[in-house]
Amino acid sequence: MSSLFLSPREVLPAAVFSQWLRLNWAARFFIACFAGVTGIVALCWVVFGFGSLGLDATATFAAILGITVTAGLGIGLMGLVFYSNRSGRDDVAGGGTIDVPQTLTLAALGRPLTSNQEPRMSTIATKDGTHIFYKDWGSGQPIVFSHGWPLSADAWDSQMLFLASRGYRVIAHDRRGHGRSSQPWTGNDMDTYADDLAALTAKLELQNAIHVGHSTGGGEVVRYIGRHGSSRVAKAVLIGAVPPLMLKTEKNPGGLPKEVFDNIRAGVLNDRSQFFKDLTMPFYGFNRPGAKVSEGLRDAFWLQGMQAGYKAVYDCITAFSETDFTEDLKKVNVPTLIMHGDDDQIVPIEDSARLSAKLVKGSTLKVYPGAPHGMAETMRDQVNADLLAFIKGG
């Protein structure tokens, strides 16, 4: 049932209402009170003292009409104050729009724009309609980051800020089902992850890009090159990455037993919130003697994990543990840096980085003594410096 009353937004011209909203609350309140009080006083005078003036009928009618209109406008302005001060909240709740100053819009985009430029959108749509969120900071040679499970693009903030401040364009996306991207029921597999990455690089028209992948993201980078080639790729960096294959098989006797991943699935199904919180301890090496535990970092990991879709989190366990990247690694034909901690409790180095280094021709393996799986945070200064040196290197 529609309302019997019209709102000020419906009655006033859009330009008038927009200018009214640009006034701060105090200014609106003062104007409305002044007009309202003036109108009410005039109306009282009409009722109680107007007859003593001795005007003729025509003048009396005109004066009463004018004062009544003034009183009505004043009271209406008072109502407009209260309506307009809550209109922003109502618009958001109702799916409407709010006038946002241009400077605020541009600041949110993270890069200045001139009047003849269009802001870069923060999502792309893949061929199956999934929307992939990404962050795009700075300018220069592009560096594309692929995050680990169950995190989001925010896991790369330390590296992105560091490199963008040094003249690079840094881009990080939330994998489908993770972070701010769509949560489709299907497509939570490594082939689709790689295709999504290809769609992002094509949409942004990236060339000569450096791809950096951590953990599951390292597998994504390798599968991307394996499926789509390296024509857009200048270099690759794998940090604590899952290739060649995490699962123990006849051909991969050094892998982890299937029970390990079954336990991860069980933990996610039983109480993923507590599971993510507990996982931070070995992930960052906080369970080692003498480790300095950061509760803030643990909370950040938990928050990113809880942003991910339940189905995507569950399916991705199979994707990162059972995908064999052996043939993809053989196709990597760009300079590649493989960074891994020798105390990685999530992706043990012996069955990952050391094997990958043998499969990627001309790659460089850099081992970090005592470093955990999440060394991009716990050792950010060293990791950032080594990344920059590799990127600048010939």
Summarize the structure.
With 394 residues, this protein is an alpha/beta fold. Helices cover 51% and strands 11% of the residues. The model is unreliable at 1-7 and 86-120 (pLDDT under 50).
Describe it for me?
The chain is α/β, with parallel strands linked by helices. The chain is 51% helix and 11% strand. The protein contains 15 helices and eight strands. It has helices spanning 8-11, 14-22, 25-49, 57-93, 102-109, 157-164, 190-203, 216-228, 258-283, 295-307, 310-322, 326-331, 353-359, 375-378, 380-392; strands at 123-125, 131-137, 142-146, 169-173, 209-214, 233-239, 336-341, 364-368. An eight-stranded mixed beta sheet has the order 1-2-4-3-5-6-7-8, with helices on both faces. The longest helix has 37 residues, at 57-93. The termini are far apart. Mean pLDDT is 84; it is low at 1-7 and 86-120.
